[in-house]
Amino acid sequence: MIDYELMIIVDPTLAEKDRDASFAKIKKLIKEFSGKVESEEVMGEKKLAYKINRSEKGFYTLLNLKLKGESIKEISKQMNLYGEVWRYMFVRQED
After folding, report:
1. Gap between the Cα atoms of 55 and 39, Å rounded
2. For residue 22, how many other CB atoms are within 10 A of its CB?
3. In percent, how much of the chain has pLDDT > 70?
4. What's the average model confidence in pLDDT over 48-69?
5. SS3 (DSSP) at 92
6. Looking at residues 71-89, what average pLDDT do you find?
7. What is the rounded CA–CA span in Å between residue 95 and residue 83?
8. What average pLDDT does the chain have?
9. How many structural domains compose the chain?
10. Whose CA is closest to 12, among 50, 60, 68?
11. Which residues are registered as beta bridge partners of 47?
C-alpha cells in the first residue's frame, strides 16, 4: 500500500447532506478497491483559479489514503461519472 493524497473539488451549491453523501460515496469506492482513508481535511469553500461550470468557488476536501497504485485508474473512471465532483487529483506521498 502506498500513501496518497486525494484533493477533491465539488459543487459548492450542494446542500450539506448531499455533499456528505457524495464524500461517503467516494470513501466507499476507495474501500471497494482495498484502500483505506487515513484522514480527511474539509477545507471548505474557496475561490477557484478559473471558473468551473460558471462558478468562481468550489468546495475543497483533502483525503489522505493508503492505496494500491493500480487502483487509481479504476477509481478515476468511477469518479468521472459523479457529476457533483468537478475536479480531483491523486498525489503520491514520498516516504
Report:
1. 28
2. 20
3. 99
4. 92
5. strand
6. 91
7. 34
8. 91
9. 1
10. 60
11. 57
Helix (H) or strand (E) holding 18: helix 16-32
CA atoms of 20 and 54, how far apart (whole Å): 23
CATH of the domain at 47: 3.30.70.60
Is the pLDDT score of 70 beyond 80?
yes
**Residue in the structure block whose three cell numbers are 473512471:** 77
What distance in Å separates the CA atoms of residue 43 and residue 60, rounded to the nearest whole number? 5
Cell for 64? 489522505
Task: Indicate the pLDDT class of residue 31, thresholds 50, 70 and 90.
Answer: very high
Statement: residue 95 has pLDDT above 80: no
Print the domain residue range for 79.
Answer: 2-92
> CA 79, CA 81: separation in Å to the nearest integer?
5
Question: How far apart, in whole angstroms, are the C-alpha atoms of residue 89 and residue 95?
Answer: 19
| CA distance linking residue 84 with residue 23, whole number of Å | 10
Length in residues, the chain: 95
pLDDT of the residue at 82: 87
